Prior knowledge:
By secondary structure, the protein is of the alpha/beta class. Helix content is 29%, strand content 25%. It is built from 12 helices and 16 strands. The protein has helices spanning 2-14, 51-61, 87-93, 113-120, 131-137, 139-147, 177-189, 197-203, 234-237, 253-261, 278-287, 299-307, and strands spanning 28-33, 36-42, 70-75, 98-103, 124-127, 151-159, 192-196, 219-223, 244-248, 265-268, 271-272, 275-276, 292-295, 313-319, 344-353, 356-364. It is elongated.
Amino acid sequence: MEDKTYMQRALELAKLGAGFVNPNPMVGAVIVKDGVIIGEGYHQKYGGLHAERNALKDCKEKGNNPKGATMYVTLEPCCHYGKTPPCTEAIIENGIAKVVIGTLDVNPVVAGKGAQILRDNGIRVEVGILEKECKNLNRVFNKYMSTKLPYVVMKYAMTADGKIATTSGQSKWITGDEARENVHRLRNRLSGIMVGVSTVIMDNPMLDCRLEEPTVNPIRIICDSYLRTPLDSKIVQTAGSIKTILATSSEDEERVAEYEKRGCLVLRLPKTKQGIDLKALMTELGSMGIDSVLLEGGGTINYSALESQIVDEVHIHMAPKIFGGDSKSPVGGLGISDINQAIRLNPINTTWAGDDLIIENEVIY
């Protein structure tokens, strides 16, 4: 039970790095000696010290000696030189006697090697405490490290009868303040945010992160086959301060130059019947180090994304309201005729945000 308690604390610490460590994993570490926590830390920002080194630093700053202690860490310590030296070296040098690891690292340069190096140096190693929770924490990292493709979360707000707007087109606001705050937490946690050009034309959004605590704005990605994004839109006007990508199949060089002059990055991509080739876009974004994308589009791009099988999760924010009529639904497109061909979801978490219900689902292809 004590092992789980300390690992739970390490998980809580790891989550503090959300939005600041991408494309690195979120990691937390706790050092325990004689039943007392003598040091703790987490990976705070990309390029900064890893959780293990921060925990050791905290330990020493408090005047505690880590020799003979046990370290609890949510992810296998690294054993290679990257932005920082290997954490295995620091653990060995400081005389840690035992390391309890939540889950092994999927990164092939680590993948069990870190744990083995610790064992080879006489350190007891235990793996698998709260393993499911530790893996779940870094599902974005695990996919990106395995495939070099972004983890895509589709989010939409709808009424109890599945509408995303009234018959007159009004959509602000379907859900309440607490649900919308949850959306901004998602924007802070994921590297990019993607919409279709129709959303930009209709709503003129900023697509930034608005939370009181320190936050990171996601990279804005607009799917715009024919470069219809208004030059006076908030997206284009703020492209100099918030990184903005226009994904297009347009060959209008003069139009492209206008966006680039305003700070937008224009990606040329092949076109499909549904619009931009979303699989090709994901490959491009992955190569740019964008490990995750929040899709906040309308029914058209949502259908295309699901049909292209790029979506990993669907987050449904459902308000206790009914609009009725034939107004828009969250997923448009051609739809399916055979019920057996439905895209299936596996609910993985449900929470309440005020009066609104948030259902997080894994997509099953």
